[in-house]
Design goal:
Blueprint: H1 2-26, H2 35-49, H3 53-75, H4 78-109, H5 116-120, E1 128-135, E2 141-147, E3 150-156, H6 159-177, E4 182-187, H7 196-204, H8 212-227, H9 241-254
Parallel strand pairs: 3-4
Antiparallel strand pairs: 1-2, 2-3
């Protein structure tokens, strides 16, 4: 009986492993992918919006390899130089892939409701973001991020409607954050606004005003504020798969 139970347990465990393997293989979430699959999917998605991608990725790779090989022949070690050139060329190709993927992602979602979520997903882990904390019927939306640069509210939509919406959210957050300054940003291409493709860099460049323990404390208070909000009808914004692919490419480049 014991042997039979053991065999059944092993069979169940094997079946569970096979099911999990099949799920990961079919998944489009970069967290379920290996390094090579992450890179391949990032390349495929980016190539849809960037037809010059092969030139930008493979061009530097070949150039670095050729330069290294020429130097190798000059010093009498072409094999070692060739191997080094291939490695450095791959690193250069990955750097260009990440940059082009980022650019293509912004191009893909520019103008769509909820596109600020793409930029917020590219912030470092020190930043904690919550997309669409408030929204109007016209799909003007307020997004929030919290990190070393402070508490930031990002308005996305028609500036006239956003003014009152942002002002109301600033008052709510200032009451909860106990004196912490709330920075507001309106996303757009007009003067005084921040475009989608510059949003993440703009936020990262904000002067450091909060330590990690302060971020944790304020985050807990914000949860209380969010808990009393009415259910928000989510705008039909993007699901930033491509931005996660950017992070997947970075992971693959530096190793997990």
């Amino acid at each position: 009986m014991a042997d039979q139970a053991g065999k059944e347990a092993k069979a169940q465990l094997k079946a569970a492993k096979q099911a999990e393997k099949a799920r990961r293989k079919a998944s489009t979430d970069p967290a379920d992918m290996g390094r090579m699959r992450q890179i391949k999917r990032a390349y495929s998605l980016t190539h849809e919006y960037d037809k010059q991608l092969p030139l930008w990725v493979f061009g530097p790779w070949v150039a670095v390899f050729v330069i290294a090989l020429v130097i190798g022949f000059a010093v009498g070690h072409p094999i070692y130089a060739g191997i080094l050139g291939l490695t450095l060329g791959m690193l250069a190709a990955m750097i260009f892939l990440v940059r082009r993927t980022k650019k293509a992602t912004y191009k893909r979602y520019a103008g769509q409701a909820g596109s600020a979520e793409v930029a917020l997903s590219m912030l470092p882990k020190a930043w904690v973001s919550k997309p669409v904390i408030a929204v109007t019927r016209q799909q003007d939306a307020i997004h929030r991020t919290l990190g070393p640069g402070g508490l930031v509210l990002i308005g996305e939509g028609e500036p006239g409607r956003l003014k009152a919406l942002l002002a109301g959210e600033v008052r709510k957050h200032e009451r909860v954050a106990y004196g912490v300054k709330v920075t507001t940003i309106v996303m757009g291409s007009k003067e005084g606004q921040v475009p989608l493709d510059k949003l993440a860099d703009h936020i990262k460049k904000l002067p450091k005003t909060l330590e990690s323990n302060q971020v944790t404390d304020i985050r807990q208070r914000l949860r209380a504020l969010d808990a009393v909000r009415p259910q928000i009808p989510m705008p039909k914004g993007p699901m930033p798969t491509s931005s996660r692919q950017v992070k997947g490419s970075r992971q693959a480049m530096r190793g997990r």
